[in-house]
Design goal:
The structure holds two protein chains of two kinds. Helix content of chain A is 0%, strand content 49%. By secondary structure, chain A is mainly β. Chain B is globular.
Chain lengths: 118, 117
């Protein structure tokens, strides 16, 4: 079974509008971390936002926020006021603390390609 | 200053050759990783080292051998290259952030695109 599922292979959003990128995860580990990365066409992986399984509040970083619904095992990324530069692949990832500990690897979803229209 | 640097950025080679990709990080991180990104953009862990010790070794052919001379370097050597090895290889590093949920952000290098002909 997939640990991280991103069901939207591609998304379009109008510039200045908000967009939600879906991510669901599967784990029985009570301690885990959820991450979102952006990969523009230039290829580098850019960290956006992190949410811990014990965090009470949803994480926010500038225009990025993470809609964390623990019971549903979902960690959707919300980008507000989309910009043309937001066009990229977006990856959701998870680290399970009891597998590999705090230095364990990240398990990535298959990504969502976001295209921002002017 | 580049935090995680990989060389070469592009590598084109023939089947059967042996090649290496080098990775260096100047962040003082303890843990380094190699990920492979296939043509469908799927990222998968290959290896992870902590202070020069191997801690993760996923199901990767023996032709792939990581080497960590010190905690700032993690090189990837590939023997007898095959067509299926064509991919982008990412090096990454992280520093333990403590806490219960493993909030260690991986900092990635720019990637090394390997093409096997």
């Amino acid at each position: 079974a997939q640990k991280i599922t991103q069901t939207q292979p591609g998304m379009f959003v109008q510039e200045k509008e908000a967009v939600t990128l879906d991510c669901t995860y599967d784990t029985s580990d009570p301690s885990y971390g959820l991450f979102w990365y952006k990969q523009p066409s230039s290829g580098e992986m850019i960290f956006l936002i992190y949410q811990g399984s014990y965090d009470q509040q949803n994480a926010t970083e500038g225009r990025y926020s993470l809609n964390f619904q623990k019971a549903r095992k979902s960690a959707n990324l919300v980008i507000s006021a989309s910009q043309l530069g937001d066009s990229a692949m977006y990856f959701c990832a998870m680290r399970e603390l009891n597998y590999g500990g705090s230095q364990g690897n990240l398990i990535f979803g298959k990504g969502t390609k976001l295209s921002v229209k002017p | 200053d580049t935090a995680v640097s990989q060389t070469p950025k592009y590598l084109v080679t023939q089947m059967g050759n042996d090649k290496s990709i080098k990775c260096e990080q100047n962040l003082g991180h303890d843990t380094m990783y190699w990920y492979k990104q296939d043509s469908k953009k799927f990222l998968k862990i290959m290896f992870s080292y902590n202070n020069k010790e191997l801690i993760i070794n996923e199901t990767v052919p023996n032709r792939f051998s990581p080497k960590s001379p010190d905690k700032a370097h993690l090189n990837l050597h590939i023997n007898s290259l095959e067509l299926g090895d064509s991919a982008v290889y990412f090096c990454a590093s992280s520093y333990p952030a403590g806490g219960l949920s493993g909030a260690n952000v991986l900092t990635f290098g720019a990637g090394s695109r390997l093409t096997v002909l």
